Amino acid sequence: MELSESVQRGLQSIADPSSFGHSSFQVLVDVSFRSLLSSHADPGVLDQSELKQVDQILLKQSHTAATTFILEAVKQNADKSAISSCLEELTFSSERIEIFYSAYQEHKKELERLLTSIGRRPPHINDVSWRLNYHMKNEQVDKVNEPFYSISLNVEGEGSSEDINFTCTVEQLQDLVGKLKDAAKSVEKASQM
């Protein structure tokens, strides 16, 4: 895992037994997971009695580093060996790695659900079907003699699938195709920047 220098420094502070004793380390790990899973911001989450002796600036930096590492590990679906090797490089003892990993395993599913709920994307088109129809007459019994298309878009979003049906004339369909081509070009240009 690639971590910024500030996250690495924060994690190295957590690994240092002189900064965080055994009990304060366990509390910090627990508080870090709980703060990510809490549905509301709890300003007193770092006001645990075991953490009172730790410098408040160091505590906040360490908490930020721990939560960043947790989210990155969940995002990458890291296994025990990936987490262990990363924490070993940051001078974590095997005991502290085990404490961290057991907390990670305990909360991983909840954190995965949390991360998947962030940044919902709009529905995307899975399939298109169309049929060419021909209007012979309208309701006023006038001759129309005009072709039109019946189009069905199968879209999937939020785990469900639905069909969007509409009709359009040849001109409207040509306009739609032109706009879709323009949109595709815009997306391609934006991805190259």
UniProtKB/TrEMBL annotation:
Family indicated by similarity: Belongs to the COMM domain-containing protein 3 family.
Gene that encodes it: COMMD3
InterPro entries: COMM (IPR017920), COMMD3 (IPR037355)
Coiled-coil annotated residue ranges, if any: none
GO biological process, one term: sodium ion transport
Pfam family, one: COMM_domain
Protein name (database record): COMM domain-containing protein 3
Signal peptide (UniProt feature, chain positions): none
Domain (COMM) ranges: 124-191
